Automatic annotation (TrEMBL), chains A, B:
Transmembrane segments: none annotated. It comes from Secundilactobacillus pentosiphilus. This is Maltose phosphorylase. Residues 697-752 form the Glycoside hydrolase family 65 C-terminal domain. Signal peptide: none annotated. Gene3D superfamilies: 1.50.10.10, Glycoside hydrolase, family 65, N-terminal domain (2.70.98.40), Maltose phosphorylase, domain 3 (2.60.420.10). One of its GO terms (molecular function) is carbohydrate binding. Residues 13-227 form the Glycoside hydrolase family 65 N-terminal domain. It comes from the Bacteria. Belongs to the glycosyl hydrolase 65 family.
Amino acid sequence: MDTNDAFQLHLQKLPPQDEKTFETIYTLGNGHFGVRASNPLQGNNSHFNGQPGLFVNGFYDLTQLSYGENYSGYAQNSQTICQLPDLRFIIFELDGIRSDETPYNVKLVDKNLDMRTGVLMEIFDIKSPTNKLFRLTLQSFASHADKHLFVIKYSVSALNFTGALTVIKQHPYINQQIQSRTDDMRASRPETALDRTFIKSKLPIMLISTRKSQLALIVAQQALKDNPMQVGMIDDLPCHNKTFDLTQGMSQSFSFVYAISYPHPLLKTTLSQSSFAASAEKRLANKSFKQLLDESAAKIGEFWDNSDVELTGDTALAKDIRFNLFHLYQAAGNDGLTSIPAKGLTGSGYEGHYFWDAEMFMLPFFIYTEPAIARQLLLYRYHTLPQAQRRAREMGVKNGVMFPWRTINGEESSSYYPAGTAQVHINADIAYAIDTYVRVTGDEDFLYDYGYEIIVKTARFWLSYGHWGKDIAHKGKFVIDDVTGPDEYTAMVSNNYFTNRMAQNNLSIAVKYSNQLKHSHAEKLVTLNVTDEEIAQFNQAADEMYLPYDDQKKIKMQDDLSTSKPVWPIKETPRNQFPLLLHFHPMTIYHYQVNKQADTVMTDFLFPKDQDAAQLKRDFDYYEAITVHDSSLSRAIFGILAHRLHHADDAYGYFMQTVMMDLSNSQGNTSDGIHAANMGSSWLSLIYGFAGMGLEKDSFNLSPELPEAWSSLRFRIWFHGRQIEITITQTAVTVKLLSGNPIKFYLKHKAFKLTKEQLVNHFLK
Amino acid sequence: MDTNDAFQLHLQKLPPQDEKTFETIYTLGNGHFGVRASNPLQGNNSHFNGQPGLFVNGFYDLTQLSYGENYSGYAQNSQTICQLPDLRFIIFELDGIRSDETPYNVKLVDKNLDMRTGVLMEIFDIKSPTNKLFRLTLQSFASHADKHLFVIKYSVSALNFTGALTVIKQHPYINQQIQSRTDDMRASRPETALDRTFIKSKLPIMLISTRKSQLALIVAQQALKDNPMQVGMIDDLPCHNKTFDLTQGMSQSFSFVYAISYPHPLLKTTLSQSSFAASAEKRLANKSFKQLLDESAAKIGEFWDNSDVELTGDTALAKDIRFNLFHLYQAAGNDGLTSIPAKGLTGSGYEGHYFWDAEMFMLPFFIYTEPAIARQLLLYRYHTLPQAQRRAREMGVKNGVMFPWRTINGEESSSYYPAGTAQVHINADIAYAIDTYVRVTGDEDFLYDYGYEIIVKTARFWLSYGHWGKDIAHKGKFVIDDVTGPDEYTAMVSNNYFTNRMAQNNLSIAVKYSNQLKHSHAEKLVTLNVTDEEIAQFNQAADEMYLPYDDQKKIKMQDDLSTSKPVWPIKETPRNQFPLLLHFHPMTIYHYQVNKQADTVMTDFLFPKDQDAAQLKRDFDYYEAITVHDSSLSRAIFGILAHRLHHADDAYGYFMQTVMMDLSNSQGNTSDGIHAANMGSSWLSLIYGFAGMGLEKDSFNLSPELPEAWSSLRFRIWFHGRQIEITITQTAVTVKLLSGNPIKFYLKHKAFKLTKEQLVNHFLK
């Protein structure tokens, strides 16, 4: 196997897709921003089919939400991530005809993404209206060394003529979004309008601001020194421009770097604009393309060193896995003020909102392989505690916080509360993620400074939102009414098993960490007003949490009434009627037992010690039969559980559908952006699934079992400051301590000691 | 007591209210249209505070509904009743200044409504910008003899000057609505735009049409012969106009009649416009005000003969009762294509929609006193069966029909389904009303031609929407999931007691009438495909209907889980936080046991034989304690049940709050229109409550008991073609057969025979 090829994503080897899907797949990003890999001549010209754009994490405008009946406490504005002008955009002028005024013919010849370095290479053949043909080659990357930079090199060579070609690098428009109508509530809302001014500078530097959210950011454009270009003014707008004399067969190159600031309130940005301009001019001067690329490639190289998963036995699959890891890395906010949008930074689907999947489906990858990023992602939630506290009061919840179901700025942005605000499990999901982070990293500082406060305040929410049952069925138990679990095909129920079990965990870890900090840092409890009485209340509610169980079917019940409804006739429903939410009224869907995604079985997954294999099998069989996987978050969970049940074929089947989702556009909407959480699920499937990773007290356990098709699986994790490499074959497991102190771990629940000098080789068969 | 005064509603004797509330209270209508009693100089000038308008039953436009997340099957358009130009509007010109261009000062001096004749008399003192003062007296009525006519007489007399006054009777604007912003989802939506053309005619005749619903109606204006006026053109628009020479102390009069057509599709209206014009010219020629008034007064006199309720012992209350009956009569559609909007034809609140209250709260009054109107109201539902059938299919319900929760044209117009479409009890409510109509009137033709089909098709809905329980709690029972009962503070529950009990009744009467018609009109069952097997299914579902009951508290449970929630802290909630729906998120409200209105106890009311007195008392006490009466439909039901429990003080208290609601503006929103259903409830309270009216097989029972404050209560009913007068005093009941054949009836469940020659006098004490 050619090592290099293992990281190449070559267009010709992908299944055929429409243009917008490829734009998504080849998006370049670095957690701060993402640039779709569109036709660089499109701009906002609707003559072309693409949907180009730059997305900056945390840069959104507000669009007013409208309701037929507008109730108190409803989210009044949706935050919508802004679609900014495509940085790849370029204007050519041939025979006096500008490509942005009279569309040129653009033919995509090839694309190749080198995931190892993060460099995208593209070839387009372009024909002017005067039938002059030239080839445009792009080489671009989002810098991983300096998160503000996007770098792009253009090469042009004439194919059928000799003569002058003028290049204008300018953004004559500001509103990038190209109108499209859709009834899919998962796509984005109508456009938002942006304003733009150019800052006084030697360079073209734009200050882009939103109308309603009053945010702004600065984008500076600089020609790199490889082939300098003059700054001029065309149509009263600053630009770089140059006229090349092309000769057939000889290519000419020129490259640019863009510096994209963090978004800040407009006022702050305006005040700092001149110093930003000065600093940009200075920082971007005298940089070469190669220099910037080397710095970025080195940095992403570290990511691969930490995070790569090497699978042998299926070359194509090994690459698909890397594709998922690459996009996760590109999507994750890393400034403590942003998280991972559901579509990464590859599109405006779901408005660019952060959901529970950031913590539950993507964070584990970072916790184990890039803990510094995981910490930043959790800090984002910490910084939105004030909004979550206000929201709780607004919803009549007396204590604690209520994190929003979907948001960018920390405020609730969900306009359909039964499948939004009612998913209060988000609170417990965040607490679960913090606990996992602390247990895997041993980062006690984070716990003390940030994590504990979130855990306490989310635990308080449950005490306020739930109550002690008084009726016969719930007497003496802690019950939680009016919630929606992960399965959005069932809404506003009492005692959703998943929610109650997660709330129980939230309360338990609040007790655990309270007791721990009471001894080491008693002042923290005083600051947060945590009393022994409150700890006792947490403990009691956790101990007596009501968990609905069907004694007839001997399964965990999804909620108090779930098993009483008729089952949706899944087999009789035509394929084109899925996803159900696009074809049936919510009331119609709620009227049946039908799951959009893993719900109750998520607890089997998250709490493996809750049930024995027989219980797991009953839950799995029951819920698998009523689940339609209309959510991309579903299959991976079923796959991991199938692995635990030693249903090797099922586990492999579910995994293959998970890992291929965006490359095969199997959900049909990759054009709106990647399914970031599903990519996180791929990693979960590999590590929690096939490698059987699980947490033990201060340690971890592996229960590996590879599909027959695979020869080996190798990956690295960080655990309590140690880097550990794990290699699994059909017959053996090898565990290697790459750095750090000796540690105990478990293999199939048998303890081993790992020291630096020693490998652990364990034979499975 | 002055008999005449008993029908006078004199402004000076009413509690002080704001102008818009009085506009509502004094609205004149006749079931076809309503005209608010506004400042006749306002027009659509926002200089004044009023909200003038003409509302025509069934004339609506569509406004697009917008949703943050727009799901399949959602209502896409709201029907909104159109606010048409005020027919009272008039323009004066003094010293060259037109009152519609430069606002005059208008001071309301007095109003008096003679409910006996339906004539409204009003006095305004008007001052021109040149300080000329004159008095304007209006006398107006909506004709009850010819439902198309609105008649108005203006008298002017100079108070401080002598000279010329020009009168222009013209509608220079078409869009009447005056912008107002509100967050109250019970008020109306933003305006709709109307178009208007004048038809070629000798008279000013407008064809008014809507933009989206493509409906049109025609309004013709004619000066009456009492003081003829010329038709002319001013500003290119036709008008009547005349200049009067005023002398102080001498008044001059002129009067107009408007003919308002029924609304029809625009195309049809356009095609018939010339014949309408010709006919209007002919019909309206040579009519005098007195002639039109006499015809109308005679007709409304018949209404009072049939429907008056005479109460002695409380003169003010007696008048309040008449006020309610008068407005009910004014509100009820009577063309078989319209029903009773929630606000009558007095305002645009609730968009002018028809709800369940038409059948459940208002129809009984008409069934017993004006059965011909009751029949028209039920025909409206019959004519919307095709829409209800389409809606059922759209909602995935395989058989039967699904009537809309709120509508004008028969299509669902509810934009918040948990408190809209989910109130599927509307189906059973309509069936219940038909059964009552048939049992009271004996109108077998209606049953055969229309009613039976509705009963069968609604019964089929229940068989499809509900299912047979399989879990332990519901095994072998017929259960109905995902519904909302009348109480909108609890939504989307399983086995709402009210819904299930009403569905049971719907199924039972389907069986009853099927068995009846099988013998008399077997062909009807064939036409509707009703088989013995289906009748058996109806019967079985009715017999085994699940009715939730709390064995601990020994009360009917509102739904499967209702009694498990904590009770809303009603006493601790500040007064200004009511109604709760304007101050709390729905999820917050649903999280508690708190009832907006009578829900489960509605079944105690509707099915008196379901429970003994002890059960009724437990239900009453439990639900009264958790009910906040944020709906105007609530108190009357509790009052009637209090009467049955012999809680005389409670019954009287609830009744007094019901009967006074609009005159005292106790809900605070009478300005948006009357609470028509509450007015129906007043009648229910008197007849079903204090008189104790109830149905027996082919007969009725009275169990009267008057509040101590009252001397007597007298009313008339029609029962199976007989008119019967009932007089109740503190000590005796007198029942008199006014027309028709002898009949048996019951007094406190004791049988009596009533013949034409004989009164029944029964002593209560």
